[in-house]
């Protein structure tokens, strides 16, 4: 396999991991994310207003959302995956309508993930959301 084929295979593998991540939280199965996250994964909050470190902390955030929010619509587009060696950066544009605490919100932005290949598996090591808009929807 030449380098171009290696990169294409890595892109496909990362795309599958990202698909599994989005499917797990959308299906309300945050525990399914565990093997997809590195133990030291970090999430930088939007606008880099803070961060959470570690798989357990990130899983807790997904679990909270799954338990306390109801997604009415979720769309993603503009996928891009760049691979260099054993590192990949994946991003996509999203638009979502969800309900939490009796209030509907429309959320949109770009989800940005960094993955590393470890022992033949791609795992998420870093995440942030760019250009995030999270606005209440008038009833």
What does this structure look like?
It is a single chain. With 139 residues, the protein is an alpha+beta fold. 27% of the residues lie in helices and 53% in strands. The protein has 2 helices and 6 strands; from the N terminus they run αββαββββ. It has helices at 3-26, 55-68, and strands at residues 37-44, 51-53, 69-84, 87-100, 103-118, 121-136. It has a 6-stranded mixed β-sheet with strand order 2-1-6-5-4-3. A hairpin with a 2-residue loop joins strand 4 and strand 5 (103-118). The longest helix has 24 residues, at 3-26. The N and C termini lie far apart (56 Å). The model has no long low-confidence stretch (mean pLDDT 96).
Characteristics of this structure?
139 residues; alpha+beta; 2 helices; globular
């Amino acid at each position: 396999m030449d380098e171009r084929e290696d990169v294409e295979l890595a892109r496909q593998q990362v795309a599958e991991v990202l698909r599994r991540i989005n499917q797990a939280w959308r299906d309300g199965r945050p525990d399914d994310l565990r093997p997809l996250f590195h133990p030291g994964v970090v999430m930088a909050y939007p606008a880099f207003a803070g961060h959470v470190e570690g798989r357990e902390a990130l899983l807790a955030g997904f679990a909270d959302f799954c338990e306390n929010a109801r997604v009415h619509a979720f769309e993603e587009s503009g996928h891009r995956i760049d691979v260099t060696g054993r590192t990949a950066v994946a991003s996509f544009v999203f638009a979502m309508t969800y309900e939490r605490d009796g209030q509907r919100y429309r959320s949109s932005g770009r989800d940005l993930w960094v993955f590393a290949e470890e022992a033949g598996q791609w795992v998420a090591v870093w995440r942030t959301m760019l250009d995030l808009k999270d606005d209440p929807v008038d009833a």
